[in-house]
Amino acid sequence: MNEASNALPSLRSRLDALAVAGVRNLGIPLVAIAIFVGAWSLAARTIQVSFGSLPGPAAVATEIGHLWQDHQAERAREQAFYERQAERKKAFLEKNPAGEWKERKYAGRPTFFDQIGTSLKTVFTGFVIASLIAVPLGVLCGLSKTFNLAVNPFVQLFKPVSPLAWLPIVMILVSALYNPAHPLFEKAFLSSAITVALCSLWPTLINTALGVSSIDQDYLNVARVLRLGWFAKVWKIVLPASLPLIFTGLRLSLGVGWMVLIAAEMLAQNPGLGKFVWDMFQNGSSQTLAQIEVAVLVIGLIGFALDRAMLALQRAVSFGSQAR
Amino acid sequence: MSAFLDISYITKTYGAKSGPVTVVREFNLRVNRGEFIALIGHSGCGKSTVLSMVAGLQAPTTGAIILDGKEVTDAGPDRGVVFQSPCLLPWRTAYENVALGVDQVFFTSSRADRRAIVEYYLSVVGLADSMHKRPAELSQGMRQRVGIARAFALSPKMLLLDEPFGMLDSLTRFELQGVLLDLWQRDRTTALMVTHDVDEALFLADRVVMMTNGPEAGVGEILEVDFPRPRDRGTLLEDPHFYELRENLIGFLNERSHRKPVAGPPPSLVAAGYA
Fold first, then answer.
1. What is the rounded average pLDDT for all residues in chain B?
2. Do A222 and B87 touch (CB under 8 A)?
3. Does B42 have pLDDT greater than 50?
4. Strand order from edge to edge, sheet including B190-195
């Protein structure tokens, strides 16, 4: 009885401490967000732009609803189109069973949510291209001082180049080199993805090289004692040992890629979020600014989610003492 | 009869900024097949350097090491090394750490045979229940058990132990010395062990090689430890001879280790009966 009454207060104080930490960690960001939203709506009421006032939080919230309704309506139209087509096909084949029916694709305009999908697809394509180049190159840089010295000038030279400078070159090269009879990808998509890859491969390359060159000598001794071949050494020792830093690089790369993508899409007219922002800017209706603001928030949220996902992966590959 | 391991006149010089430093100078040692040698000396005297040259991880500046009739030029799985920190690969389980070497060395054996080898050595060192844990989930002592299993599982010609119990508390150290001795007793693999623990050297070794202080360290004296095997720590501690040997060792470490090795035939050869 006595022990229980002693245990209770300590449990209680611990719960209190937890509650305080919870309130602080959740409460302070919430208050900050509230202040931001307040300042934003105040600015919205006072700042006048060419087509009325700056849209505030309420206008943005309404616009999210509109964009969602647009999306639903477009999907409904698409479904209706395919139903009509199916009926026509049935009728056609009843009339002349030997005839050849040509399927048509629905050619509606992409909605905001379709554009999010396109952007994600583009950024991942660029990211995969970048990783496939940067990780092997980084491993070679980390293993060989000579190779590193040879690659280093290019890293230093091309790392700071803006996507806007790369894009025209990439677009011209894509038009010149990619002309298949049945294109699998849109040219705009390819140009955007390659630009993303060019700008985002550097953090992975640098971190992989660093990870590989700073492997614990003990691990390499294990490889020497066992006389592992070059590929076995890289695959079984070097790569796993440098995974935490490789993933640090990949995480940075994906962040850079997502940021670069919006600019690339604007110029290349790849039907993603960048194009959405550009089109809204060009059409200049009273809703556009609010829709651009929605896009900004969505771009930010997706970037945040991508970063969290990569962080989780990074933690999953950090073993034992290397775990942070 | 030529020795199983013949270390002759090896010198190791490192090029430092302030000029070259000779860590080990004209180190000589001949080890017979099946012998257990302990290499003892003050820390920094170059005993680990000698071991790592036998392992082939470093090359001697001059002199040569001949193991079983062949000169040592590179590291290889015929010498099982147990490092001071077990340096297991943290992304592999205990089983996978041992299997890495076993799969490499016994690549001609069947998968089941290799599996049996790994499981056998892990259970002998007492890890039957923790085979599939990662190093981070194992205690320091358990990790070193994996290190021991990894070295023995390759059935090497020679075992090289670099202060394998240096980082353990004394209870765990006693336990692991027992594990090591049990395993060693089975096939009497020739062993060279670096240590700075006098009792450990006497308990495990057939001969204790005492090194003079560095730089330019060499073999000082060699002590024969003739306790019958299998040894038991309790019996050993009751034997007055044990304390004589212990006095001798401590006396060397405290006083005589500062002297440079005497000229003439290397004391190792004298003690081993070659000269």
1. 87
2. yes
3. yes
4. B79-82, B158-162, B190-195, B36-40, B207-211, B219-224
Q: Confidence band (pLDDT; 50, 70, 90) for B1?
A: low
Contact B136 A323 (CB under 8 A): yes
Token pair belonging to B40? 């003892």
Cβ contacts below 8 Å, chain A against chain B, sum to 60
Residue B156: its pLDDT value, please?
92
Identify whether the C-beta of residue B196 lies closer than 8 Å to the C-beta of residue B43: yes
Mean pLDDT, range B198-211, rounded to an integer: 91
pLDDT on residue A250: 95
Give the helix/strand (H/E) hosting B207.
Answer: strand B207-211
3-class state of residue B6 by DSSP: strand
**For residue B20, cis peptide bond before it (omega within 30 degrees of 0):** no
Mutant choice from B53, B104, B139 vs A, greatest count of A C-beta within 10 A: B104
Q: How confident is the model over B163-167, as a mean pLDDT?
A: 88
- Tell me, what's the pLDDT at A309? 94
Q: Return the domain boundaries, chain B.
A: 1-78+158-174+184-275, 88-155
Q: Are B231 and B201 in contact (CB under 8 A)?
A: no
CATH of A110-319, one of 3.60.10.10, 3.50.30.80, 3.30.420.10, 1.10.3720.10: 1.10.3720.10
Which residues, in sequence order, are CB contacts of B176 under 8 Å at separation 6+?
A: B141, B144, B145, B148, B164, B165, B168
Domain residue spans of chain A: 2-46, 110-319
Which CATH number does the domain B1-78+158-174+184-275 belong to among 2.30.40.10, 3.40.50.300, 3.40.50.2300, 2.30.22.10? 3.40.50.300
Q: Rounded to an integer, what distance in angstroms lies between the CA atom of residue A84 and that of residue A77?
A: 10
Q: Nearest residue of A to residue B105 by CA position?
A: A226
| Residues on chain A touching B79 (C-beta within 8 angstroms) | 225
Q: Find chain B residues with C-beta within 8 A of A321's C-beta.
A: 90, 136
| B128 and chain A in contact, CB less than 8 A | no
User: Burial code of B25-60, b = ≥16 C-beta within 10 A, e = fewer?
Assistant: bbbbbbbeeebbbbbbbbeebbbbbbbbbbbbbbeb
Residues of A in Cβ contact (< 8 Å) with B105:
226
